[in-house]
Amino acid sequence: MQVPQAPLFDEYALGRAYDEMFGALGQPRPHYAALFEQLGTLHAPELQRRQQVADRAFLHQGITFTVYGDSRGTERIFPYDLLPRIITGDEWRQLERGLTQRITALNLFLRDIYHEGRILRAGVVPRELIFSCPHYRREMRGLRVQGDRYVSVSGTDLVRLADGQFAVLLANRAVMKRTFSRLLARYSVRPIDHYAQALLRTLRDLSPQSRPNPTVVLLTPGVFNSAYFEHAFLARQMGIELVEGRDLFVHDNVVYMRTTSGAQRVDVIYRRVDDDFVDPLTFRKDSQLGVTGLFNAYRAGNVSLGNAIGTGVADDKAVYAYVPAIIKFYLDEDPILRNVETYLLDDAVQRDHVLQNLHQLVVKAVGESGGYGMLIGPHSTAEQREQFRAAILANPRNYIAQPTLDLSCAPCFIDERIEPRHIDLRPYILAGQQTVIVPGGLTRVALRRGSLVVNSSQGGGSKDTWVLE
Amino acid sequence: MLSRVADHLYWLSRYLERAEHTARLLEISVSLAADRTPESASRQGVRLLSALQALDAQRAGLVDFHLLAVDLTVGEREESLLKCVSHARENARQVREQISVDMWEQLNRLYLRLLAAREDPSWQEQPEDLFRDVRHSVYLFKGMTSSTMARGEGWQYMELARFLERSINTSMLVDVHLREFHDSLRTSVEATEYVEWLSLLRCCASFDAYVRAHSASIRPLHVVDFLVLDALFPRSLRFAADRIEESLKRLSRLSGRTQPARVERLAGLLRASLQFVQIEELLHGDLLQTLEHVRRQCRLIHHATYQSYISYQLESEIA
């Protein structure tokens, strides 16, 4: 199928995957028509020029990450694509309902598994699955979490490396305003600038009840963390202190920060440090990033953490398979968002099926992220499949398998022309007294032709996402 | 304000002040070096290093001025412009959320400019251009700081740092100059030395201001008087001492602290020692000792500030 004639689209081929811009007959979808029209009037050099202007803006703003193992400390800008991804208002509202339902159910689930364990007793989710999850924290058993909001912020992932993604999202929008100012005016795109305000409200909601005017801080691992730019950005937008572990200390189960005016009490910590590292007294002894005694202060209810400790269970890829059942169990509703079919490999029948069909499936390690520990069957070599077969047999609980998805494609500006690339979407969800979902989220792009891996550590990039009114 | 943040803002400001000073010294030395004999240029190189407190034993011999200038610009040594600006930027990076976007971008641009100079030696054909650009970048940064930053604690730490650094730099520069040209203080200026006194003024960005205060006749006594004791010129030691004392007073008020008496006493002593003295009295005593005294006081003020606000004992804080 051919797309309409336009100089930049010479090499644009429609494949099996759903294309965001073009319908099956090659005509641009209505909400992409204006973008297509605009691109039709542009030539490669002009687009190239805009790309350079945008690159410079990123570089000068220092929206960069340090390349590890480079002694000269080379800093690169986050890879991104110039063309926006567009989502209609209807699609978005559906997504919003589904995400709200999901986060509500997951918070009930987390409360349950750390208290009564009703869902385990009912046999809906197997006990072994929860207790064998490395992110399950026994220390959290019976501990009351403020407002029962275990996960307050998701999307900006606490457990995995976030790679500065949220900041990239906002920076993308700022650059895009300059790059496609007239086009942006033709669409009515929902703004995303209020994120910081909503995040601060969500965090304040977590404050211990006795503290009406809470001091909120953002705890970062520090300047060498790849997401540091994002931490600094959010702290500045919210007007709160950006602290490192060494700025905080605990006295009589109360957390303080060291300020020029002396010790100041801290009530809510938006922590961007993993569970393992938050408190060397309770978790990893060798942590240099945490605060000694923080967990005891947390137990005593003198400080709140966003997110709570032990929420990684909800991110476990094997638990993912049970999300529809979890939603049904707590909310008695059908899931609005479809779950990708997931095979659990400690079940012998499913495991056999998967091992026979490795060349067609995607296998993922449950605790890994960033596109590591992943086998994409159709793109794998026999040798890689053998490695995974051995690994699965050695530790089946550590893996899941899913059918290879044809991620949808969207047009990207690559090497002086526009070509389709696979994309996904990573929305940002704030669960406070109300649930807020950022209209946009981050669209990640697999910039290598044919690749399905969108993680920025593996050749992925980002795109601005426009949600229409 | 977090103590760590105060620490970073303080060093951000100090390193930039140092970069500005070094750039100005290089700019003026390079333009003079062209007219000098190799031997005289080498002596100038040694003076430059002494003024930057960068003279080490093996450097004390003959110095190739051109190589030295490159080394002090993009070299690996701690005193180089690239190092100063990198350190300033590292400190700024730790407090990104405290400074305005404009400030960060400006500093980042300066850093990238020097990084490019390290890779591409073409700037060495017109080195003054690079030095002037660095100087102007720092001015621009200070202007942005001045017009975008609230006059809270952060601002006061940056002010304090800037004037402490400036006092040490100026006093060191005058010190080195006097050691070489001490005799001309009492006699009239020889034609050859005229250039040296003129360049001393220019190294302190004070030629125009001096001329307005003392007319165009360059008299060594007046020059030293102006650089050490002038009450109104922002690069004199006296002026800096006033600002240091003022910043410390404001810091104690802003932080609501009562115990920093020691640091305020030190600043008061420094200010008084420069406020109530006349240049003739300094000449009768030992001028070099006075300059050394200024530097010592500055170091003491630095340590006392850290003890009061930044690296204090935690035990004393929680009653």
Task: Tell me about this structure.
The complex is a heterodimer of chains A (469) and B (319). With 469 residues, chain A is α+β, with helices and mostly antiparallel strands. Among the domains of chain A are: 93-155 and 193-321 and 325-330, Rossmann fold (3-Layer(aba) Sandwich); 341-403, Dna Ligase, domain 1 (2-Layer Sandwich). Helix content of chain A is 30%, strand content 20%. Chain A has 14 helices and 21 strands. In chain A, the strands form six sheets. Chain A has a five-stranded mixed beta sheet with strand order 3-21-20-17-16. A four-stranded parallel beta sheet of chain A has the order 6-5-10-11, with helices on one face. In chain A, strands 12-15-13-14 form a four-stranded antiparallel beta sheet, with helices on one face. In chain A, helix 2 (44-61) packs across helix 6. The longest helix of chain A has 25 residues, at 89-113. Chain B is mostly helical. Chain B folds into two domains: 1-148, no CATH class; 150-319, no CATH class. In chain B, helix 1 (3-33) runs antiparallel to helix 2, helix 1 runs antiparallel to helix 3 (65-74) and helix 5 packs antiparallel against helix 6. The longest helix of chain B is centred in the N-terminal third of the chain and has 31 residues, at 3-33. The A-B interface holds A 59-62, 223, 228-229, 232-233, 235-236, 241-244, 246-247, 249, 251, 256-263 and B 1-6, 90, 93-98, 101, 104-105, 108-109, 112, 153, 251, 255-257, 309-310, 312, 314, 317-318.
In N-to-C order, the SSE pattern of chain B is HHHHHHHHHHHHHH
SS field, number of helical segments of chain B: 14
Q: What is the total number of structural domains of chain B?
A: 2
Mean pLDDT of chain A: 84
**Principal-axis shape of chain A:** globular
Rg calculated over all Cα atoms of chain B:
20 Å
The oligomeric status of these chains comes to heterodimer
β-strand percent of chain A reads 15-25%
Give the % helix of chain A. 25-40%
CATH class term of the domain at 93-155 and 193-321 and 325-330 in chain A: Alpha Beta
The global form of chain B is globular
**Count of DSSP-assigned helices of chain A:** 14
| Low-confidence region ranges of chain B | none
- From the 3D structure, determine the CATH topology of the domain at 93-155 and 193-321 and 325-330 in chain A: Rossmann fold
CATH architecture of the domain at 93-155 and 193-321 and 325-330 in chain A: 3-Layer(aba) Sandwich
Alpha carbon gyration radius of chain A = 23 Å
On the 0 to 100 scale, the average pLDDT of chain B is: 89
**How far from one another are the termini of chain B?**
20 Å
Which structural class do the helices and strands of chain B define?
Answer: mainly alpha
Main sheet of chain A: which strands, in order across? 3-21-20-17-16
The strand count of chain A comes to: 21
